[in-house]
Amino acid sequence: MAEILVLVDHVDGEVKKVTLELLTLARSLGEPSAVWAGPGYAADAKAKLAEYGAEKVYVADDADIADHVVAPKAELLAQLVGSASPAAVLIAASQEGKEIAGRLAVKTESGVITDAVGVDSDLTAELSIFGGGVNVKSRVKTGTPIIAIRPNSTAPEASQGAAAEERVTVSLSDSAKAARVVERVKQEKGARPELTEAAIVVSGGRGVGSADKFSVIEELADSLGAAVGASRAATDAGWYPHQFQVGQTGKTVSPQLYIAVGISGAIQHRAGMQTAKTIVAINKDSEAPIFELADYGVVGDLHTVTPQLTEEIKKRK
Amino acid sequence: MNIVVCVKQVPDTATERKLRPDDKTIDREAAEGVINEICEYAVEEALRLKEAHGGEVTVLTMGPSKATDTIRKALAMGADKAVHLVDDALHGSDGLQTSYALAQVLKKIGFDVVILGSESTDARMGTLAAMLAERLDAPQLSLANKVEIDGSTIRIQRLTDYGFDRVEASLPAVVSVVEKINEPRYPSFKGIMAAKKKPVETLSVADAEIDAAKVGLASAATEVVDFAVAPPRAAGTIVKDEGDGGVKVAEFLASKKFV
Ligand SMILES: Cc1cc2nc3c(=O)[nH]c(=O)nc-3n(C[C@H](O)[C@H](O)[C@H](O)COP(=O)(O)OP(=O)(O)OC[C@H]3O[C@@H](n4cnc5c(N)ncnc54)[C@H](O)[C@@H]3O)c2cc1C
To answer: Which residues constitute the signal peptide according to the record (chain B) (predicted)?
Structure first.
């Protein structure tokens, strides 16, 4: 069976859930080979990749790879596409993942599909475009299909693989090292599930009113084991860090449940959450466009409705 | 400094956007064409770099002839001149081909900095800056919420999942910006009038030394095989808070087994 390369998404040595989803999907397309790029590779990570079916693990864990923007990872993958001739390359559709996919497509003269929500056994990809308005099936006609897949598109299922380790050396070209990361600035916000991976997301908008009041959103999120998101109005106001922004220029999320609190539902916000399975809105304006999407909505003041909801959820536990 | 800002005309997101049943490409006639919002931020940043460092801002667009509206908008904001890559042969080009075509033009016109918006609202790939950097063998400084140029060094803050990276490179470079970077100016009346007289050079595929066999629908590396309008979401239940709004939501969540 043909190899399917899966680029591993990892933070601090830990394999992200989306990678387990991609490995699960890869098993239905061929034989998954995980590709580890950058430092942090260890036994735990290998075990995780094996558990979800990686038959091979290519490891290139030089610091160099992470110290330059995007290009080194594309170079590594291009080298592996050359040596392993995989049937496809799967990458998580994060902003960086899509950029890696783009550069890899140029390097290997291959077609690239981004934001797929599914891939059939014949490598036809399913997409949801125009803010969820149109469902599309696309395929790559040229080269090695490179497909960036949205988190939460497949349920991860364990199935042991051999995870045969193969060390890879890449001698990075000068152009891959042209954009140097000189400093990483971390702005963490608690130990909640990752926004794009979470089954439930609770987002706050301008209606929340202040950074302090975001505690109302966080408490609701914690009662549900949810991730916290924010609208642009809330991130621009400095109430919540930018990486929690949901929407056109923020994260695209497809959770089982999305709760929008004090968010009007502007088209740019909807672009990032429209594919959530169930949508709940709390807003004082009955005309707010978010209600057009909502499966359930309450017209009321979020400062009373939300804490009451949090209390009620805790009571029912 | 020679600053080139890439802009794209897209179907207005406020209208219903469609694919064409015949060749399954975006229907650019069905909806009004407007400048892709995030491109305005790219134009603004280009103008600010020019104001700080001198030089010239050139608008570059690839698109049908009606994309001149989008070019005029960028010129009215203050860009100096424009290049419009327009040719029927380009119709249906995918991301890979578009990056090839634009890279050919950029090689021809030269640049110190190319600035783009992080993604377009129609295709939403978010890959063009990366692809151009690859093709032009220039540093990729993408997803910037801050750009600084100091002599031949360019520094950006690149937004990441954990915060941001400070990234440094030497010019020439390819930059993409997010909407956090600035607040785009509105064109003034004077700007709108002046834009009408600013030079817009149109280039065909041949003019730009683009291999016609490598662009357009027939040779695209990807194809849409099928599409369907998504069924509309079923109308939801909207209640007014009568003092028990929170409890009501909890009941709904319980009925869906979320609690
Ligand atoms: C290029 C570009 C990119 C963008 N990208 C994004 C993006 O990625 N994500 C994004 O979110 N936006 C994005 N936007 C911005 C978007 O257009 C909206 O401005 C933004 O989403 C508004 O945020 P909001 O809903 O929180 O604020 P508002 O639109 O001001 O809505 C606030 C809502 O809160 C309600 N409210 C106020 N007080 C209360 C209360 N006490 N109780 C209950 N409800 C209350 C109001 O009724 C209102 O509906 C982008 C814009 C541009 C131009």
So the answer is: none
